[in-house]
């Protein structure tokens, strides 16, 4: 199953149609009159934080996934408090919140009560990709912020790194995302890092506490390097790069890594076991432009999952709490 690629003019029309049909009242240049500098402020905030901390782009990209897959793209992940999404263990390693909060504070000065935290998250993830060499993606805005954030909603709605293909397909399908979208959006792992605990299922520990590779779908040298970096310690602060080759650049190296059996997570490696996904992995590994064009389409779909518009939500004064 090969992802569809359109000429630029046709793709623009496709994007407009998709945004209108999938995301209700979202629109391009939504803030043109009410806050014309909104996207500029978010982009500058992302670039400023990223120049100080190279890990920020990967964190922002992970943040949008974890927000949009639970309650839709409504900034529910930003809400703080007991039993909110942030309190679930699966979200404790999610970062980038300070970037969103910083952009929000500036926007509240120039355009109070106008730009939603949900839009800031989507725009910041888009700008993070661009900041590290990825494609420029136009996305519609007009999302409103949700008022519900429950830890109990997290686990049933996010991908676990040990997921099988069937489990991932089922989850992505429930969000309106296709098999192609699954493969393309997995390319987000071309940047960012992961805690050793998130892929320990790929190794076994012997009686002397030494790690051994479990299974045969990881390159031996790569597996040895991971074991060396992680050791037998369960120290939760130890991390490794998702992409062992070009970890700070958004490119198609992720797919070349997969073909070399250097996919960090079990959920990465399973993409090679299905004939349909394997074909798309091959195509994307051999053509970065194809990856960028398809990323733009799939990212647009991701950031319009379950959006709230008009009276469905609110524009928070602070991303950390509802206005009530």
From TrEMBL:
<dbReference type="GO" id="GO:0020037">
    <property type="term" value="F:heme binding"/>
</dbReference>
<feature type="disulfide bond">
    <location>
        <begin position="68"/>
        <end position="73"/>
    </location>
</feature>
<comment type="similarity">
    <text>Belongs to the peroxidase family. Classical plant (class III) peroxidase subfamily.</text>
</comment>
<keyword id="KW-0106">Calcium</keyword>
<feature type="binding site">
    <location>
        <position position="251"/>
    </location>
    <ligand>
        <name>Ca(2+) 2</name>
    </ligand>
</feature>
<keyword id="KW-0732">Signal</keyword>
<dbReference type="GO" id="GO:0006979">
    <property type="term" value="P:response to oxidative stress"/>
</dbReference>
<feature type="disulfide bond">
    <location>
        <begin position="35"/>
        <end position="111"/>
    </location>
</feature>
<feature type="disulfide bond">
    <location>
        <begin position="117"/>
        <end position="319"/>
    </location>
</feature>
<feature type="binding site" description="axial binding residue">
    <location>
        <position position="189"/>
    </location>
    <ligand>
        <name>heme b</name>
    </ligand>
</feature>
<feature type="binding site">
    <location>
        <position position="85"/>
    </location>
    <ligand>
        <name>Ca(2+) 1</name>
    </ligand>
</feature>
<feature type="binding site">
    <location>
        <position position="74"/>
    </location>
    <ligand>
        <name>Ca(2+) 1</name>
    </ligand>
</feature>
<keyword id="KW-0479">Metal-binding</keyword>
<feature type="binding site">
    <location>
        <position position="76"/>
    </location>
    <ligand>
        <name>Ca(2+) 1</name>
    </ligand>
</feature>
<feature type="binding site">
    <location>
        <position position="70"/>
    </location>
    <ligand>
        <name>Ca(2+) 1</name>
    </ligand>
</feature>
<dbReference type="InterPro" id="IPR010255">
    <property type="entry name" value="Haem_peroxidase_sf"/>
</dbReference>
<keyword id="KW-0376">Hydrogen peroxide</keyword>
<dbReference type="InterPro" id="IPR002016">
    <property type="entry name" value="Haem_peroxidase"/>
</dbReference>
<feature type="binding site">
    <location>
        <position position="72"/>
    </location>
    <ligand>
        <name>Ca(2+) 1</name>
    </ligand>
</feature>
<feature type="binding site">
    <location>
        <position position="190"/>
    </location>
    <ligand>
        <name>Ca(2+) 2</name>
    </ligand>
</feature>
<keyword id="KW-0560">Oxidoreductase</keyword>
<feature type="binding site">
    <location>
        <position position="246"/>
    </location>
    <ligand>
        <name>Ca(2+) 2</name>
    </ligand>
</feature>
<keyword id="KW-0575">Peroxidase</keyword>
<comment type="similarity">
    <text>Belongs to the peroxidase family. Ascorbate peroxidase subfamily.</text>
</comment>
<feature type="binding site">
    <location>
        <position position="67"/>
    </location>
    <ligand>
        <name>Ca(2+) 1</name>
    </ligand>
</feature>
<keyword id="KW-1015">Disulfide bond</keyword>
<feature type="active site" description="Proton acceptor">
    <location>
        <position position="66"/>
    </location>
</feature>
<protein>
    <recommendedName>
        <fullName>Peroxidase</fullName>
        <ecNumber>1.11.1.7</ecNumber>
    </recommendedName>
</protein>
<feature type="site" description="Transition state stabilizer">
    <location>
        <position position="62"/>
    </location>
</feature>
<keyword id="KW-0964">Secreted</keyword>
<feature type="binding site">
    <location>
        <position position="243"/>
    </location>
    <ligand>
        <name>Ca(2+) 2</name>
    </ligand>
</feature>
<comment type="function">
    <text>Removal of H(2)O(2), oxidation of toxic reductants, biosynthesis and degradation of lignin, suberization, auxin catabolism, response to environmental stresses such as wounding, pathogen attack and oxidative stress. These functions might be dependent on each isozyme/isoform in each plant tissue.</text>
</comment>
<feature type="signal peptide">
    <location>
        <begin position="1"/>
        <end position="24"/>
    </location>
</feature>
<keyword id="KW-0408">Iron</keyword>
<feature type="domain" description="Plant heme peroxidase family profile">
    <location>
        <begin position="25"/>
        <end position="323"/>
    </location>
</feature>
<dbReference type="GO" id="GO:0042744">
    <property type="term" value="P:hydrogen peroxide catabolic process"/>
</dbReference>
<dbReference type="InterPro" id="IPR019793">
    <property type="entry name" value="Peroxidases_heam-ligand_BS"/>
</dbReference>
<dbReference type="GO" id="GO:0005576">
    <property type="term" value="C:extracellular region"/>
</dbReference>
<dbReference type="GO" id="GO:0140825">
    <property type="term" value="F:lactoperoxidase activity"/>
</dbReference>
<dbReference type="Pfam" id="PF00141">
    <property type="entry name" value="peroxidase"/>
</dbReference>
<feature type="disulfide bond">
    <location>
        <begin position="196"/>
        <end position="230"/>
    </location>
</feature>
<keyword id="KW-0349">Heme</keyword>
